[in-house]
Specification:
about 375 residues, alpha/beta, Alpha-Beta Plaits, TIM Barrel, 2 domains, 8-stranded parallel sheet, 15 helices, 13 strands, about 15% strand, elongated
């Protein structure tokens, strides 16, 4: 059984709730079919179990879900046909208890502790580096950028989500170039394999065979694609959320709590959680809700490492750690590559912000340029 909690905007919430329950389980929300026997309805019709104002709780029978039905099918049930019912003016899926149906999902393969072991980054926030410029680099140039970030001490490198498989920097050429450049270093490298389902799985498999140490996929590849990569490629998986507000805002949407439950269910090990103090500046309370879903104990699954990015710079590192703890990754592109002393110095400034030892010229320059919370960026 799956229990879903909604916030419904309708002039008649009770009618809307019944339309959702019936329409998302057995049939037309208003008209019963001749074959809608009492036995069939008892076995398959979803039930409205609570209504408080616009808050509605619906139970979907477990018998409606087959063993091979994945997150795509479940989401089609939970947030599907109700958007086509005109007297439902808004419907937000605010939380889900997946019940026994969660058992079909493996969850993160590595989780926070596994990523720490792979990088050797113990008892401190991890530092992530993002390749910039996003587009236009040759495989050799991209490899040089990655090596410079690794030399500066980043723990994790990912390509940007807009880098596909272009002829001037094909995946088959750039992955071996980066792997060679990072040989002997503990830095995890995640090429971007965003694509349609079959292409994304094929690219992830190729990246694995060529020596990549993680996989980066954007949300637009689809939730089921993440799960397929998790099951077929034994590498850490990074969830890039850019584009997620298409799902999490508006009259018909899911909450970020639901989104990150899905991300954890389908097996990602790291995920972009958002940012505080950058050009994306979310409230501490909103971020803490998401962090609870990612890092808290939940149905026996491994934890999910949250990555803060979108304007991160060295002046924010200590504040992020103090507010959100060590079990985070702080990822940057602009403030690493835009450092006046170069990419390696930019990466080194982030590490110096975590554990300053002796003189810190790279950090000093960064703080002068970007300052801390509230400073111009």
């Amino acid at each position: 059984m799956i229990t879903a909690h909604y916030e419904i905007d309708a002039s008649d919430v009770e009618k809307a709730a019944m339309a959702l329950a019936v329409g998302q389980s057995v049939g037309n929300p208003d008209i019963r079919a001749l074959r809608d026997s009492d036995e069939l309805l008892a076995r398959h019709q979803a039930r409205v179990i609570d209504i408080e104002g616009g808050r509605v709780t619906v139970e979907f029978p477990g018998t409606n879900f087959g063993e091979s039905d994945g997150i795509a099918h479940i989401m089609a049930v939970l947030l599907g046909g109700q958007v086509d019912i005109d007297h439902i003016e808004g419907c937000r899926l605010v939380d889900v208890d997946f019940g026994d149906e969660a058992g079909r999902f493996s969850g993160p393969r590595y989780g926070i502790e596994g990523i720490r072991q792979l990088t050797g980054a113990i008892d401190r926030p991890l530092i992530g580096g993002i390749v910039k410029p996003k587009l236009g680099l040759s495989p050799r140039e991209l490899a040089d950028v990655c090596r410079e970030m690794a030399d500066g001490g980043v723990d994790f490198i990912k390509e940007d989500e807009v880098l596909g498989d272009p002829p001037w920097c094909p995946l088959a050429d750039r992955v071996p170039a980066v792997v060679t450049a990072l040989d002997g270093m503990p830095t995890i490298y995640a090429p971007c394999v965003t694509g349609d389902a079959l292409d994304a799985v094929r690219r992830a498999t190729l990246a694995y065979e060529l020596g990549a140490s993680a996989i980066h996929v954007n949300v637009w590849s689809g939730f089921g694609t993440f799960r397929a990569i998790r099951e077929q490629v034994e590498l850490p998986l990074f969830f890039q959320k850019s584009g997620d507000r298409v799902w999490t805002t508006g009259h018909f949407a899911m909450s970020e709590v639901v989104l990150y439950k899905i991300v954890r269910l389908m097996g990602c090990d790291m995920a972009h959680v958002g940012m505080w103090g950058g050009y994306l500046n979310e409230s501490i309370s909103a971020l803490e809700v998401k962090l609870g879903v990612m890092r808290g104990s939940w149905i026996g699954l491994n934890t999910l490492l949250p990555s803060f990015s979108c304007g991160a710079h060295p002046g924010l590192v200590r504040d992020l750690g103090e507010r959100f703890g060590n079990d985070i990754m702080i990822s940057s592109g602009g403030a690493i590559h835009g450092h006046p002393m170069g990419t390696t110095a930019g990466a080194r400034a982030f590490r110096q912000a975590i554990d300053p030892v002796g003189t810190t010229p790279e950090l000093d320059v960064a703080l002068e340029l970007w300052g801390g919370i509230g400073s111009p960026r």
